[in-house]
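Sequence in, structure out.
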Amino acid sequence: MGKVKIKKADIWIDMTPMSDVMVLLLTFFMLTSTFVKNEAVRVDTPSSVSEIKVPENNVLTILVDNEGRAFLGMDTPAKMEALFMNMSSKYGVTLTGKQLEVGRGAANVGVPMQNLSEFLTQDAEKLNDYQKTLGIPTDSVNGGQSEFQDWVNAAFEENGEDMKLAIKADKKTPYKVIKKMLSELQDMNRNRYYLITALKNVSEE
């Protein structure tokens, strides 16, 4: 006697709910992610146990590499453009619309004012290569303020006294360099700032 074959029913799984969940997760991560800026130099910050979060808006970040070179950066392209316009006006440097557009896309600026125009004529991907060996001068000019102080003042002029200062220095930066920079900020009555560090792991203690 022949075997009776039982017809198997097709199994169908509705993937629509899973697709909806994946889209929601992707949207969530896109909206909550903070994109890492292509900073002028790589800085290996020292470790600390502090968990105070640096504000994300209206912040002037002072970047100091392990050789003591200083770079400045604002949190939005529009603020960077305004900063370039302010400083170029103070120093009598003429910038074209194309140069200002390049400035909008720069994460940091770290060149003497005499090099500013040439700096902003570089291709966007070459800006960091151009400036990484220069840095903003911190020496006083003719007994007055340094270019570094002028950049900081210009940033406050454009963004108001509510703007925050954040210092991100390499752990190998000579102490005398940091001390001099802090002294210049104190001379400007800028005594409140954040020090950006890496959170220390338990294994490092």
